[in-house]
Amino acid sequence: MTLSLRYRRVKEISRWFLQPLLYYSGHCYQQYGNGLSSVPFSPKSIANEGLVRGFHQHRFSTLADVSNKHAPEVDFLSFLKSSLDELEGPHHYWLNRSVKNKQFFGIHSIHGIHGTFLVLAARNFECGIIFQKLKAIQERFPHITVMGITLTDSSDRGNLIQLLMTENITFPILLSQRTFPQIEKGDFYILFNSFKSPIICHEKDVSLEILCQAIQGLQKQPSEDSKLLNVLRSTSWKQDLITKDQYICSPLQNLLLNYPGCVSADESHNRLFISDCNHHRIIVCDDNGKIINCIGSSPGFEDGDFESAKLRRPAGSYYHATEDCLYFLDSENHAIRRADMGARLVETIYPISTVNNGGGRIWNWVRSKLGLESHVETIVEEKPEVLDSKSLYFPWHLLKSDDDTLYIIDRRFQTLWTMDFGSGKVDEVFEGSPRILKICGQLIGQNLSILDKIPCDQFQQKTNNVCVLDGLPHSDLLSSSTTFQNHMFICDKDRQRIMKVNIESGVCLDFQLSNLGSLGIPYWLTSPVDIFYAGGNGLSDTAINHLQHFDLLPGKIDIQLSVDVPADIELVEPLQESCIWRQARGAATEISGMDDPNSIDKVGVAQQWYNELDIVATLKPELEITEDDNLDKNIVVEDDKIHIKSSVFTSPGTSEVVIFAVLYCKLKKIPNSNDGNQEKYAARILDFLSSKRSGKKERDSWNAFLLQSKGDLRDLIFTKPLHVRVRLNTFEHPKAENNRDFILTDSSIKVNVLLN
């Protein structure tokens, strides 16, 4: 391209924008106004010019020779790049980031940091709509690294944590106290490959379509990293195996409830349906809090039984008594799901599935054992690059009218979808809160009318980022409250609990969830065996509480594990077998709980596999579980200690036994004590839950959030993982006097663990 032709092309582009274009080269820059001809420039300073509807694309190959002034954006990128190597520094600290998501920031090599990055830079995060756009980008381009950076001070910390929980932010957020001129001028997006050639958009409200076009355009640009990008694209299917909130490293994720956003009721069967949104599950309990069932096992998009079904942030729900089914919105899957309470099955009713599930459940189980399973989620249809007008986009509220019309409303009351209950098809889409009020305002008012009888201080929520309809001040509680007999149940998102309020007296009654063992080990604390072992020391972000070595003779080994719980911590409920995971590898085979432990000569990995297959393939009637059946013989609690029994059979060689358990705990209340030091309670909870790698500033942010909530922090229930590893060195079999037979010995070892 000749110099004159290049000049004309740049001049035409500049006329499309009122903002100046900046071309960067090293630490120098040149700025051109609308005329573009007032400043001379070197023709070698521009290697490529580009434009994607609202974005300014910057390319450079050699140094410009007219200015030595530092460009704000170059300084911004340099600061961002330098902050990736440490969680906390003099001028920054990260939220939602830990050592286990270093891979989130691309591939480190001698050539630098590679990958495509999309960064939202903002003075402060006030609007959740921008986060919805970034979530949509993550769905369409799973290999893109998304992050945010904001300027904040200590007074904003609690509100920022509240926003992260409300919006379920899964990507890292960089907080900085440094001043960046570009952020001071206004929020902007910046897109780049390997910290080179940034594309900048100064429009915070840029459409999702433009963002997608910019990413596609950047990926099509040839670069030295194109080979690497092709590799990333070819392996992007693996993202289906990785839960999107695996990078969340908030200590508050270990709370029993993490943003209980919605609740509905079934009075005929005395059931409450609590959407534990950020744990991606629906908890079914009675009006006294006893957990009956749990719908959903982990984040994803998959139909199946309650234990295997995958949801992504379930929201509003509606119980259909005639069908005995719960209809609920799967918000971040943009779908409507149905849970058959009798059959204990979850299916997607919108969009309609066209994917063959590949056979029955037993055959799928066999394929998974053989490593032949398909990793295609039951996403009902291929997601378009831009959602069409009738697609659900982060739905939140669900209402049913008398004429069998389903009203589906987004959280900010900006979009209304109407669906015929019989056909399951979206009929019409309406935009704007005035139209929503006109169409279903009366129905919304009826659902909220009961709140007028409750003292307002009982459900006073933070006003930050709360979206309400005109004339309906409590419309944000539309799906967060329900009537149940003569009580009102309200989601308290500040204290991460459910409030039970007597409608007549307005008195808030105690409502604590019980039968917690039915929830088992939370999904975010478990890992597949291969991933568990690949880390060397187990779960990458879960510290080992205890590691001990033993030298023993081969045979049966009984392991007696004693866990000493701190004096200021108490178990909410006794530990149950469903909350323990045992695994042996190497020369050991785990035999705890086997019906016939004497037949150890037949126990092996292959034999266990066939036994499991026989059990699954043979349909057996389910036995009615009584209270006595829940008493586990391998778990004993005495003298404030938890005793866990495990048994393994070992052959000569080395082996390792992993015992992973989850304890449901809370701070102990001392009788006749008036100590109400909330600061001390918050610090103790964070000490108990936080990773040792957490920085002081990050810890202060979570502490500020805990102190914002009203109520006694000693009532807060949280989970504490217990990770113990026993490594065994087993000698050769001793031989009998005839020198032909082996002697098997029975051994017993004791392992004492102090739970910090």
Which value, in Å, is the CA radius of gyration?
A: 29 Å
| Percent helix | 10-25%
As laid out across the biggest beta sheet, the strand order is 3-4-13-12-9-10-11-6-5
Shape: globular
- Could you name the ranges where pLDDT drops below 50 across 5 or more consecutive residues? 1-74, 106-111, 224-244, 354-360, 369-386, 534-541, 595-607, 618-631
CATH topology tier name of the largest domain: Lipocalin
- Mind telling me the CATH class of the largest domain? Mainly Beta
Taking the alpha carbons of the first and last residues, their distance comes to 68 Å
Bin the strand percentage: 25-35%
The helix-and-strand class reads alpha+beta
Number of E strands:
40
Number of domains: 4
CATH architecture of the largest domain: Beta Barrel
Would you kindly provide a written description of the structure presented here, covering whatever features stand out?
By secondary structure, the protein is α+β, with helices and mostly antiparallel strands. The protein folds into four domains: 1-70, no CATH class; 72-249, Glutaredoxin (3-Layer(aba) Sandwich), CATH 3.40.30; 264-512, Lipocalin; 520-754, no CATH class. 19% of the residues lie in helices and 32% in strands. It is built from 13 helices and 40 strands. The strands form nine sheets. A nine-stranded mixed β-sheet has the order 3-4-13-12-9-10-11-6-5. Strands 33, 34, 35, 36, 37, 38, 39 and 40 form an eight-stranded mixed β-sheet that branches. A five-stranded antiparallel β-sheet has the order 19-24-23-22-21, with no helix packed on it. Helix 4 (157-167) crosses helix 13 (696-708) and helix 12 (678-689) packs across helix 13. It is globular. It starts with a helix and ends with a strand. Residues 1-74, 106-111, 224-244, 354-360, 369-386, 534-541, 595-607 and 618-631 have low confidence and may be disordered.
